[in-house]
Amino acid sequence: MEVVIASSPIDAGISCWDLHSGAEQLRYRSCASTPHGLTCVGQRFLASSQLRDSSSSSGSVLYWSWNKPQVEVKSFPAEPIKPLASNREGTYIIGGGLSGYIYFWEVASGMLLKKWHGHYRAVTCLVLSDDESLLISGAEDGSVRVWSLFMIFDDIRREEAKHLFEHSFDEHSLCVTNIVCGYGGCNAIIVSASEDRTCKVWSLSKGKLLRNIIFPSIIDAIALDPGEHVFYAGSRDGKIYIAALSAESTSSSSYGMHILGSLSDHSKAVTCLAFGMDGILLVSGSEDGMIRIWDTKTHNIVRILKHAKGPVNNVLVFERPLFNPRTSLNSQASLRRHGSLLPPPLDKYANSTDENLDSKAVIGLQSACNRPPDASYLSFHMINSQIKELQQQGSAAAADMEMERLKLDCKKSMQMVQQWKKMYENLHQFCVSELLSGDQAGGCMGNLT
Asked: Do strands 208-214 and 198-203 pair parallel, antiparallel, or not at all (unpaired)?
């Protein structure tokens, strides 16, 4: 099921609809999300950063499972988190702080793996490249920076490098409001929007500005056409502008250079945009509380959805996994000790006791049984701890593991016996050959005398 989810900066929960039928799904409670602060983690659960009071020095990150409307897990990071990002597998979550720091957590354990100072002011948006090797961040200081995750986790290279970022684009004069990344990994383009009324197109491989487009109003949302011929820019004047990426556009356009046209129906600012998986349906959210679904081929509105209350500041489109009651019961039985089917809360600080451990995330192979999705990827030290726990419990699984270990030891012992036998046979043959050679030499000497 392809679904649309939407959230609001006020406590209006999270709305969920079927993209193609418009049927409303379960509504999730108690969410007042920040812009770009709503994400789906590995299609397993929803996560959102919360900042109830902009002047507050604290914030939270909340988790919702698909089948329960209430918040199940609450995290309280060291500072308020604004944007959130997650990789496709849901192995890790990245958050941008008000201070300009960027936080990198492992989902399965909640452990804070890395934290670094990314910007001089609050981080406003985070996006991963399509191959997930690069992280692109934007901030209130107007800068757009590109980070290699290989560099971030390579302590030797970090110490040798003059700076952590691969590129720092500083041409925006005001706060960066949104960033999108195209296809091609390190050869992709990125498009950034800012309160300076411009959208800038950058080359990741060349590290330079390719195109600068000036809009009639401030742009808060961008969606990149899958073919990368145009991009859609949601404006504070209620219009969604269509801008050319590579096509030539003359200044004859009534909106300005490179702006091909617009979609116009929102009564207030357009705050967020997202494409459906077919690359044709475009979903827009607005301060008027409405979500509109557009056909980008005909420029017509396909459907209008209404959020519970208040403005909309996040929309996402993705494939929701089908609910399997049997799997849910198995998951509940295996993870009952956690009190939730979801991972533990995110750590507030880095755990110094784990500094020497291998903290790389490991994606495990799925077994044929209905294993809980939360256990499909675990860190190295968590796998070890689970093995020890099973052994201590004396469970059937532990007995099977012990049996496999004994079989492996027996196999190694048999291989060793065969090697010793072969060595004995070789030595015996060598000794016999030497004795025979000695007897023949003695006989020859006797004949000579």
From this structure: antiparallel
Model confidence pLDDT, tens digit, residues 387-405: 555 555 555 555 666 677 7
Q: Is residue 340 part of a domain?
A: no
Q: Are 218 and 177 in contact (CB under 8 A)?
A: yes
Question: What domain count does the chain have?
Answer: 1
Give per-residue pLDDT as tens, 44-63: 999 999 976 655 567 899 99
Q: Are 276 and 19 in contact (CB under 8 A)?
A: yes
Would 244 be classed as within a structural domain? yes
User: Which long-range contacts (C-beta less than 8 Å, at least 24 apart) are formed by 230-233?
Assistant: 230/260, 231/180, 231/191, 231/199, 232/263, 232/273, 232/282, 232/296, 233/193, 233/199
- Alpha-carbon gap, residue 12 to 25, rounded angstroms: 15
Domain membership of residue 437 (yes or no) is no
**What is the pTM for the complete model shown?**
0.76
CA dist., res. 301 & res. 282, Å (int) = 9
* CA 287 to the chain's CA centroid: 27
SS3 state at 355: coil
Tell me the β-bridge partners of 126.
137
Q: What is the CATH number of the domain that holds 120?
A: 2.130.10.10
CB 247 within 8 A of CB 207: no
Domain that holds residue 102: 2-319
Tell whether 386 is covered by a domain: no
